[in-house]
Amino acid sequence: MPITEVSPGVSLAYETFGDPADPAVLLVMGFGTQLIAWHEDFCRALADRGRHVIRYDNRDCGLSTKFDEHPVDLGRFIAAVSSGDIASALAMVPYSLQDMADDGLGLLTALGIERAHVVGSSMGGMIAQTMAVSRPARVLTLTSMMSSTGEPEYGRAAPEAQAVLFSPKPADREGYVAAAEKELVWASKRYGDPGDLRELAARSYDRAYYPAGVGRQLGAMILGGSRADALLQLRVPTLVIHGLDDTLIDPSGGKRTADLVPGAELLLLPDMGHDRPRELWPDIIDALATHTG
Asked: What DSSP string describes 45-90?
């Protein structure tokens, strides 16, 4: 798998699908999740619609650059944020959501791509929004999927989903894979499949087990702040996709995003949670192909 430097000291692992002469679609993954969560079959199906699809590992995840020299004590960080000691919280985190957005744009530059359609999922949606807000000339269209605006009153996680998200995962492979079934709490009620969750967990563990990056990514995400004012000024064509079964980022996060961005289109999908069930790929890919056409 190719790995390329996108800024001094930061290299990203990535993979492409389709014809480089076709319009580029950059897929941005979410919190603590590797590029393989954009399923290869999904990427190929989108490429078959005439798109040059690029998926990549965010920094501190997968095969991309790790920031081992900046350990983050998750308990101390959450305590600082909860008590309102933002200065201490900021001092613990070595990079920002803007840095992660710049990584994605740097990857496009490294690939010789001036402008791309940007599709972000969950935290990846926040990164994609940040790309569009900070460098709108480089973003042909924005798709924000199962994400939110950074405003704490929107997109709140249900307590049971938050508990699973913040529960430490077993370090051994068998335990790690078995624990993935707990993620059914935020999956599609109709299509959620524990087998699929275990399979992705096994592939992720074998490819790059790296729990240390989670705290730093979480810090960047939490300290990113509200993008509401910036989204109100955004003039990039925007599609917002959200599953009505999502308990990790409540659908209010998607609705609020679409309300803020002028002219944004909102696609609310029944039977989709904080996941992309294969059964709904035709709907999602049709929407992406139309939006990026």
From this structure: HHHTTT-EEEEEPPTTSTTS---TTS---HHHHHHHHHTT-HHHHH
